[in-house]
Amino acid sequence: MRAAPVTEQGDLIRWVELPGAEPARVYLHGLGASSAPYFAATAVHPLLAGRRSLLLDLLGFGISDRPTDFGYTLEDHADAVAAALRAAGATGVELVGHSMGGAVAVVLAARHPELVSRLVLADANLDPVVPSRRPGSSGIASFTEEEFLAGGWREVRELVGPHWWSTMRLAGRVALHRTAAQAAEGARGTRPTVRELLLGLTVPRAYLYPAADGAAQLPGPGVLLLPVADCGHNLMLDNPDGFAAAVATALGREAAA
After folding, report:
1. CA 90 to chain CA centroid, nearest Å
2. Could you give the CA distance from residue 225 to residue 255 in angstroms, rounded to a whole number?
3. CA-CA 20 to 30 A from 186: which of 80, 132, 141, 251?
4. Contact by Cβ (8 Å): 170, 210
5. What sections of the sequence does the record tag as coiled-coil (predicted)?
6. 3-class secondary-structure state, position 152
7. Domain boundaries, the chain
8. Helices 153-168 and 173-181 sit at what angle, rounded to 10 degrees?
9. Are strands 93-98 and 21-28 parallel, antiparallel or unpaired?
10. How much is the pLDDT for 133?
11. For residue 15, which of 49, 52, 70 has the smallest C-alpha distance?
């Protein structure tokens, strides 16, 4: 396990690192997740193995510290990851982000372009969402922070089920709520939107999505679109071989200009 301080208070981001060739490949998990459980099989897959790989947990999640005085916006997360990558001596990385981690990856590439050479998004969040009582960021954001900390998290636990909760329970509750809430529509959402930031980037970009979902809401020109069969939102867990093959394709081709 590796670690680096990423705030003035010395809060640590931690990651599991696999040795290999440069440039490094960095994996960012989704909301309430942790990179090692979600991406370990991908990082060592025969199609992708041999590259220095950082399976990094965002501040507030997994094995990283869980400060309560951190903002947890996408910009805050992106800047914290940037600090960790600089401490690790990782520049020009190939960045793979899932769901909310994909949104952080886009913001990171926009704010710290020297750190990212390629971007691979796995069913990433691109647009603000309307809060509603359902699993995911919209369900968490339907509570105020006070409501969530006072017991709303228990309702979320029942909504997400035992599989997701197995990693979500590791997250700081303040971190979990603030990270989810910033994605909701309103002043806390990223402006410009993540979708707009993505389309404005110049690095090679790819977007992986469940084939059964279709392509209606996917990014526009300049982004390589790669469907993955036989999977839901957790592409890398539902179809490890198909996901690894799509990531390998994404990293082996330049996205259209």
Report:
1. 18
2. 9
3. 80
4. no
5. none
6. helix
7. 2-130+193-252
8. 100
9. parallel
10. 60
11. 52
The 3-state DSSP class for residue 132 equals: coil
Alpha-helical (H) ranges within the chain are: 35-43, 74-87, 100-111, 137-141, 145-147, 153-168, 173-181, 194-200, 235-238, 240-252
Query: From its phi and psi, is residue 34 left (phi > 0), alpha (psi between -120 and 50) or beta?
Result: beta
3-state SS class at 10: coil
Spell out a b/e string for 243-257, using b for 16 or more CB atoms within 10 Å of the CB, else e: bbbbbbebbeeebee
- Token pair in block for residue 80: 């914290």
Please give the Cα distance from 45 to 53 (Å, whole number): 12
With 0-12 / 13-18 / 19 or more C-beta atoms within 10 angstroms meaning exposed / middle / buried, residue 123 is buried
Torsion from C-alpha of 102, 107, 111, 115, nearest 10 degrees: 0
Q: Is the pTM of this model over 0.85?
A: yes
Residues β-bridged to residue 21: 51
Count the residues in the chain.
257
Q: What is the pLDDT of residue 193?
A: 86
Q: Residues of 71-99 as b/e, b for ≥16 C-beta within 10 angstroms?
A: ebbbbbbbbbbbbbbeebebeebbbbbbb
Structure tokens at 42: 């991908």
Q: How far is CA 248 from the centre of its chain?
A: 18
* 13 in Cβ contact with 59 (< 8 Å): yes
pLDDT tens per residue across span 5-52: 999 999 999 999 999 999 999 999 999 999 999 999 999 999 999 999
| Greatest distance between any 2 Cα atoms in the chain | 49
What tokens appear for 129 in the block?
């969402």
Dist CA 78 CA 81 (whole Å): 5
